[in-house]
Amino acid sequence: MRGGRNFGYSLLIANDFPCQRDPPRSCPSWTDPPWPSSPRPSPPSLAQVRFQPETKCCRVRRVRNRPLIFLGLGLILAAAVGGGIAWYRDGAPSAPPEAVAGPAAPEPAPDLLPLPPEMPRIADGPDYDRCLTLLRNDPDEAMRFAQAWDATGGGDGARHCIALAMIGLGEAERAAERLERLGNGSRAGGIARAQVFGQAAQAWMIAGDANRAYGAATIALTLSPQDAELLVDRSVILAALRRFNEALEDLDAALAIEPERAEAWVLRAAALRRLDRVDQAVQAVERALVLAPDNVEGLLERGILRQLRGDVAGAQTDWRRAIELAPDSMAADLAHQNLELSEMGPSRR
After folding, report:
1. Contact yes or no for 2/227 (Cβ under 8 A)
2. 3-state percent breakdown (helix, strand, coil) of the chain, nearest 5
3. Any bridge partners for residue 48, and if so which?
4. How far is 250 from 233, CA to CA, in rounded Å?
5. pTM for the whole thing?
6. What is the Cα–Cα distance from 305 to 27, expressed in whole angstroms?
7. For the chain, which has fewer Cβ within 10 Å, the N-terminal or C-terminal residue?
8. Is the CB of residue 228 less than 8 Å from the CB of residue 198?
9. Quick one: which of 264, 204, 288 has its CA closest to 240?
C-alpha cells in the first residue's frame, strides 16, 4: 500500500443509526454497519458514541485516533502519493438487527497525520520541498510560505502547496476547486496530474460532496487507469453514493492489478456484505487475513460477518484480537463498542 496508508475502513463498517444508551423505544438497537462510514472521507472523520438530546439516542463522536480514515491534511498529503479517500456515511441498514455498532457520519477533522516518505511531484526545487515539509507539521506556516512564493512566480508548486494547506486549515471545498484547476492547467505528466485529481477527490469528500469527488476520481483514473490506489479510492466514493456494485467492480479491477493488496480484500468483503453476499464476503476477508493475519480492519470485518452468521464467540475473539493489536486505533474503538453490545445479550440491545 503506497505510503503505508490505511484508510477509513472503520467507517465502512460503521453505522449511521444511533445506538442504545438508555434510549426511548424509538431508538434502534444494533444497526447495520454500512461500508466504512467514511469517508471516510472523507476525512470524513472518526467517531465514538455520543448522546443526541433531540432523539435521546446515542450517536458517534469524533475521535482523534486515526489510522482508519482520512481526516484532513495528512491523508490528502498521503494522496500526494496516491490520493486516498476516506470512508463515508451510509444511509440505511441492509443487514439484520444483529449487526455491529459503529460511527455514524464523517465530519472534517484538522488532525495532521503521518505522511508517506515520498509524494508525487507536480513541481521541483527547494521551495517546493520546503513547502511540502511545512505541510506535515504547520499548515498555517505552509500557507504563508506558499502565498509569498506564489507572489514571486512560484507556479504550479506554490499553487499546489496553497491548496493542500487549505485542507489543513479546514477549507476543503476551496481546496478541491483549486486542485481541480491545477490538475487541468498543469503541464506536469499524466501520472502527477492524476494524483492531483485524486487529492481533489479527497477534498470533495472532506467537504461532503461525494458526487464531485466521483467526478475528480474518474478524471484521475482517465489519466492513470492502472493505478490500483485510485481504483480503491473511487470504490470508497461509489460506496458513499450507495453504488455498491460499481464499488465492487473498482475493487476487483484494483485486485487484478495488485492481487496481494489486503486492504482491498477487506473492502471487497465489506462491499459484498452490503450487497447481502455474505458467503463471498467471508471468502474475501479470509483472503485478506491470509495475506495480513494481523490486519485489524480485516479482523473487525470478520467479526462482523461472524456475528451476522450467529457465531458470537468467534466475533468476540476477532474483536478482542483487533483491540490487542492496535489498542489506540479506530478499529479497536469499534471492536470495543461491538464487544460491549454483544456482551449485553439480546435482551439489553
Report:
1. no
2. 55, 5, 40
3. 61
4. 9
5. 0.70
6. 23
7. C
8. no
9. 204
What is the per-residue DSSP string for 70-139? --SHHHHHHHTTS--------SS--S-TTS-----------------S----SS-SHHHHHHHHHHHH-H
Q: Which three cell numbers stand for residue 346?
A: 439480546
Place of cell 458513499: 240
Ordered structural domains, the chain, with CATH = 2-344 (1.25.40.10)
CB 328, CB 65: distance < 8 Å? yes
Contact present, 144 and 173 (Cβ < 8 Å):
no
Q: Which three cell numbers stand for residue 228?
A: 490500483
Question: Residue 225 has which C-alpha cell?
Answer: 487507469
Q: How far is it, in rounded angstroms, from Cα 233 to Cα 220?
A: 10
Cell 457520519 sits on residue: 105
What are the tens digits of pLDDT across the range 106-153? 333 334 333 344 555 788 899 999 998 999 889 999 999 999 999 999
Q: What residue type is assigned to position 302 of the chain?
A: R
Residue 163: CB atoms within 10 A of its CB come to 25
